[in-house]
Amino acid sequence: MRAMILAAGRGSRLRPFTDLRPKPLVEIAGMPLIGHHLCRLAAVGVRDIVINVAYRGDQIQAALGDGRRYGVSIRYSEETLGALDTGGGIAQATPVLGTDDFLLVNADILTDFDFRYLMRPSPGADLTLALIDNPAHHPGGDFGLVDGRLRAAAPRLTYAGIGRFSPGLFAGRIGQRFGLADIIHGAIEEGRACGVHHPGRWLDVGRAATLARARQID
User: Fold this and answer.
1) Residue 36: how many other CB atoms lie within 10 Å
2) DSSP codes, 43-99
3) Predicted local confidence at residue 6, as pLDDT
4) Omega into 95 within 30° of 0, i.e. cis?
5) Nearest CA-CA partner of 59 in 91, 86, 27
6) Are 59 and 27 in contact (CB under 8 A)?
7) Sign of torsion, CA 125 130 132 138?
């Protein structure tokens, strides 16, 4: 199974830490933030990784190389900064991702989520999202979860930036700029979206306050 890590953002909320380096290379516990994802994916047997890059993408490619030091094989999808948004960035990478479902991970989170929960398909679903209890900075949440199916109605949980997606959701949209939320809401409306609740560790390291917290974790 392949995984894609979203690493193309500017990281404006994390300035000044991101003025000279891209957010995925901010160091946590002696390792680049994105390295934690690579290690956790490799540990469950996911070794074919696609990373999209834009802002200071050359630094990411230089730091990670082909992924060998992390036990994975990395390919890069290069973008123009701000041109595609999250959904468009994924669509751009679909020729590399192939025709099978893939895991998707935001580079700017720190979590102990077990990716094995998403490695088996959910029957009748085109996507499955990991959801967390609503953090202080996002009290309203994103999606409801009822009997394992995503719902638009409250009460809501927050999307963890981790999911399993069918590449067919992005078919015919290469070169377009659109958000991932468009894809998710469409799948919910069609009754083809599932979710799993993650009660464990999760931090949005795209924020200065949570970066400080992340750096206190052993």
Assistant:
1) 20
2) HTT--EEEEEE-TTHHHHHHHHTTSGGGTSEEEEEE--TTSSHHHHHHHHHHHHH-S
3) 97
4) no
5) 27
6) no
7) negative
What gap in Å lies between CA 37 and CA 51, rounded to an integer?
A: 11
Q: How confident is the model at residue 27 (pLDDT cuts 50, 70, 90)?
A: confident
Mean pLDDT of the chain: 92
Both structure tokens of 35? 């390295």
The answer to whether residue 154 scores a pLDDT higher than 90 is no
Q: Is 190 exposed, middle or buried (0-12, 13-18, 19+ CB in 10 A)?
A: exposed
What are the tens digits of pLDDT across the range 61-84? 999 999 999 999 999 999 998 889
Distance CA 55, CA 23 (A): 9
